[in-house]
Amino acid sequence: MHVVWNGSAGATPRGLVNSASGKAEAPFLYSRSNGNGTAFEPQRDLAQRSYGVDGAGSIAADQTGGVFAVWHAFPVDGGNGEGHRLLWIARSRDDGATFAEGQTGA
């Protein structure tokens, strides 16, 4: 089982720092169930190049080990304000063990 959610300002790991405020933002978190299906692995932040996650993200998995997580956030090197938010996707090819760095859909 794969899950994603918007973390809080107090979540660990911390999200990236918002350049305008100088404060760490809430992360976009992922976890998956362990091999026995008895517990979840430690949560990980997938938003490695984005901050200011807005709304809910989503996740999908296929039968060949592909896991795809999407979220809406600001790019680290972009501006602030709603016109600067982008759609991001992080892809795993090994059933969520690792993810490629999130890429923008823009």
Query: Sheet bearing the most strands, described?
Result: 5 strands, antiparallel
Helix content: under 10%
Helix count, DSSP H or I runs of 4 or more residues: 0
The whole-angstrom Rg is 14 Å
Going by helix content, strand content and strand pairing, the class is mainly beta
**Fraction in beta strands:** 25-35%
C-alpha end-to-end distance: 29 Å
User: Which residues sit in consecutive blocks of at least 5 with pLDDT less than 50?
Assistant: none
Order of helices and strands: EEEEEEEE
Spatial shape: globular
Number of domains: 1
Number of E-type strands:
8
Commentary on this structure:
The N and C termini lie far apart (29 Å). This protein has 106 residues and is mainly β. It has one domain. Strand 5 (58-61) and strand 6 form a beta hairpin. The strands form two sheets. Strands 4, 5, 6, 7 and 8 form a five-stranded antiparallel sheet that branches. Strands 1-2-3 form a three-stranded antiparallel sheet, with no helix packed on it. Helix content is 0%, strand content 34%. It has strands at residues 2-6, 28-32, 44-45, 50-51, 58-61, 67-75, 86-92, 103-104.
